[in-house]
Amino acid sequence: MAPAAEPLTPRSAAMSPFDTWSAPSRRRVSAVRDRLRQVYGIPIVRPHGDGIAELILTVLSQSTNDRNRDVAYLGLRERFPEWEQVRDAPVDEVEAAIRPGGISKVKSARIRAILAAVTDTGPEPGSLALDWLATVSVPEAQAYLCSLPGVGRKTAACVLLFAYGMRDVPVDTHVSRVGTRLGWFRPRAGFEELHDAMLELTPRGQEWELHINLLRHGRRTCTAQRPRCRACALRRMCPSADAV
Ligand code: SF4
Known about the structure:
Layout lengths: L25 H15 L10 H10 L5 H14 L3 H6 L2 H7 L6 H18 L16 H9 L6 H12 L8 H9 L9 H11 L5 H14 L24
Helix pairs in contact: 1-11, 2-6, 2-8, 5-6, 7-8, 9-11
The structure holds iron/sulfur cluster.
């Protein structure tokens, strides 16, 4: 059993711990990583190498749960086995295939727009592929993905990390909430800043572990409503414990 970590931020009844915010030290981040590792282990995952699939899956995940996302994705692949077929299909047929995932009108238009843009703007015009991203720098790959219709930093990070194992970290609602409560992010930081900060504080090679374990912690313990601070393994190192 590891020794209990000291509280990371001095508390005062008169002052919020975030009133004097400063970026966390590597030691603070490592302490959280180690504690999460004790609770959830080290996830064993490998990049799957399919950037288009990850891109479309991430679009389908918006505003729905994992189960509905997966049903929509499988429905799409069953109806259109090739991505070129999705790109070229009437939008109402794509919409029907992904309907279980919710807001299918918006998502179907976006998916087709993204696939058309990838076809038109990649280094090999006419090719519907993203594998070349693995051969360029992370900033270059991020910039390209964020130039696609409706694609932002989170979606770009999912593609780069989960498909190609590149150094990026998605900041979803759980990672954002837990990181903010831990004092890792500047209060009221925007989405772009959250991603830059998360990347900066994540130890190299531990992008996947930190993302997944923060997400697990956000789902199981540090929930949006009524976080379970008294049962939380991070309690001693969290400036928000019992204050949310
Ligand atoms: S102590 Fe509470 S606010 Fe802090 S990480 Fe744990 S559950 Fe979240």
